[in-house]
Amino acid sequence: MFRAVVLIAAVVLVSDQLTKYWAESALSDGHTVSIVGDLLQLRLLYNPGAAFSIGSEYTWIFAVFAAAAVVAVTVVARRVTSRPWALALGLVLGGAATHLLDRLFREPGFARGHVVDFIDYAGFFVGNVADIALVVGVGVVMLLNARGIPLRGPAAAGEARTAEQVSPSS
């Protein structure tokens, strides 16, 4: 399942970076594209902080948190055998990884880069594809936890059986 987590993360990362590239080329002149009136629009912003631009003077701290999240999710993902958990962790890993890349390599400089946001939700929040992946991924993690679904699902074909399954019964 680790490959599935990495594949999902890669799809999120590529999708996010491609849409950011498009947003920078299509929206850089400052115009807004209405999708659903004022409820959903596309407009380009560069966010040095977290959600709602909180902590914009501490961009480097968000780079450290993103790096820690990438490492932590990768470590946990190596133990996953459950498909729903693979999906959830892939979404979170992809979102965290692409935000880390923005923080590390975008202007104004290393570990101070601004995240490209362009999806405007009625003026309340402006985000990107990575934000969507993170919210959905964390939501799925919460749902899986609430339902008591373990990281390690039923043994996949070809997996070693546990000692309990192997031991002979009297």
Written overview of the protein:
A four-stranded antiparallel sheet has the order 1-2-3-4. By secondary structure, the chain is of the alpha+beta class. The chain has one domain. The protein is built from five helices and four strands. 52% of the residues lie in helices and 13% in strands.
What is the secondary structure topology, with strand pairs?
Elements: H1 2-26, E1 33-36, E2 40-47, H2 59-77, H3 83-105, E3 115-121, E4 125-127, H4 129-146, H5 163-166
Antiparallel strand pairs: 1-2, 2-3, 3-4
Helix pairs in contact: 1-3, 2-3, 3-4
Order of helices and strands: HEEHHEEHH
- Derived from helix and strand composition plus strand pairing, the structural class reads alpha+beta
Overall number of structural domains: 1
Q: Can you give the helix content as a percent range? A: 40-55%
Shape: globular
Mean pLDDT: 88
Tally of alpha and pi helices: 5
Counting DSSP E segments of at least 2 residues, the number of strands comes to 4
Distance between the termini: 35 Å
What descriptors fit this protein?
alpha+beta; 170 residues; globular
